[in-house]
Amino acid sequence: MRHYDADPDEDPWVRGKPAPERVAVVPYDPAWPARYGQLEAQVREALGPAALAVEHMGSTAVPGLPAKPVIDIDLTVADPAREDAYVPALEAAGYLLILREPSWHQHRLLQLAAPRVNLHVFGPDCPENIRHRMFRDWLRQHDADRDRYAQAKRDAAAGVMQVMEYNKRKEDVLRQIYERMFRAAGFI
């Protein structure tokens, strides 16, 4: 369950690096699960059986957790490198391919502008997707860690204009929670 980093020499940006955007963490919105449900139905309709799994991930999937108002979805397809099997159908539904990271689990990221969506594409049994699911479920079941992470998110967002800087600022708390989660699962 070690941390995997992408190849630092890989340029993942399909459409160029995006302009800086202020990071905003907002209170939990009880409408997020219903919004996700509509998005899941659209992805499944667009892809049919090519969508092996579609799951609500990230902070908007954890009741009571403040979040950036962006729905994170993990999509599992048979082979993320075969973009022709899913990207055209998702682009027809309004998504744009933003990132291509072959060195990091063959990850692809597509985004939808309205509502804001990050659609992460992985292959079956990808450790990153499994880690996302474990973290979501851990925060749903452990209020103290959910609250600790909520505070880290609020602190990390203060005055930040880059998502990568926001992620770096909350990394220590995130890794502390991962350690407890992985230890409880018997992985470390």
Automatic annotation (TrEMBL):
Matching Pfam families: GrpB
Descriptive protein name: GrpB family protein
Native organism: Achromobacter pestifer
Organism ancestry: Bacteria, Pseudomonadati, Pseudomonadota, Betaproteobacteria, Burkholderiales
